[in-house]
Specification:
Structural class: alpha+beta
Shape: globular
Strand content: 25-35%
Number of strands: 12
Oligomer: single chain
Largest sheet: 8 strands, mixed
Radius of gyration: 19 Å
Distance between the termini: 27 Å
């Protein structure tokens, strides 16, 4: 396949950010913001970022994130053969072992094709978006004296990452997040109780929308409203930056939280893993 390096996406100008988006543009932005964040993170960490007309993928050494295949755009006749070739490259360690399937994917039956080549679905999310002129923007305070802080330094980031890694069962390298921390289009938030970081959020401000990512809360601190407060804090910053829309990808557990804030469900996103070890 022909390979073309991708460059990261910087925030748009004010008139672009403020413009109204139609239904299809909002749907597209839900995926675009996520994929642009992956590209941004891989690029600034000297990872591998590839794209052609049929596929895009990113791979980062010594870190579980970002590593993903996405934006497959195969013809119906070629999809099975190309999925099989990619599965083989994954087994050989040449491509990332995670494949994301959303509305931008073609053909429509790619999920079935992936399963036929040994891929298994390990995670499902729903793509959501909110018009920030219509969301509930009231300020809330965490229960029991908790506070929300904007992450500024490396020591705070280490605590943030420890919580995120524990909640998502991943091993994301500190260097990846440290480089993002220094980017003007990224903002890290933490929820803290008694000087302990217990909840996380990463906002990524792309050209058209603000993206909400890495929302997590330690199990012992759930039910206190911290996730909702973190999201509202990030949305306030988005409004201050001039954004009209925010997007995210929610777990089933978090969907109702986002709906109460004003997010609308648009579609499902599926994540698959391949077989790493060649069968004997």
């Amino acid at each position: 396949m022909g390979i073309i390096p991708l460059s990261s996406c910087e925030p748009g100008e004010a008139d672009e950010v403020h413009r109204n988006l139609g239904e299809q543009a909002v749907r597209a932005a839900i995926e675009n913001n996520l994929y642009e964040l992956w590209v941004k993170a891989a690029t600034i960490c000297s990872g591998t970022v590839y794209r052609n007309d049929e596929l895009a993928w990113v791979k980062t050494d010594n870190s579980d994130w970002p590593n993903a295949i996405f934006r497959a755009n195969f013809s119906v006749g070629d999809a099975d053969k190309k999925a099989g070739m990619i599965a083989e490259q994954i087994r050989c360690g040449q491509m990332p072992n995670s494949w994301t399937v959303g509305p931008a994917t073609a053909p429509e039956n790619l999920r079935d094709i992936l399963v036929s080549h040994g891929f298994r679905q390990y995670y499902q999310q729903c793509g959501m978006a909110a018009d920030l002129t219509r969301t509930d923007n009231r300020e809330e305070q965490p229960d029991d004296g908790g506070v929300v802080v904007r992450i500024k330094g490396l020591e705070q980031l280490k605590q943030w990452l420890a919580v995120s890694n524990e909640c998502f069962k991943e091993n994301v390298n500190l260097e990846v997040m440290a480089r993002l921390l220094n980017q003007a289009d990224s903002a890290f938030y933490a929820g803290r109780y008694q000087q302990k970081t217990v909840a996380t959020l990463l906002a990524y401000f792309s050209a058209e929308v603000a993206g909400i990512n890495f929302v997590s809360t330690l199990p012992a601190y759930r039910g206190k409203g911290m996730a909702s407060i973190l999201v509202r804090s990030a949305l306030r910053e988005a409004r201050e930056r001039g954004y009209k829309y925010a997007v995210l990808q929610s777990s089933p557990m978090g969907e109702s939280v986002y709906q109460r804030i004003g997010f609308k469900r648009y579609f499902d996103i599926y994540h698959y893993k391949g077989v790493l070890v060649r069968k004997v």
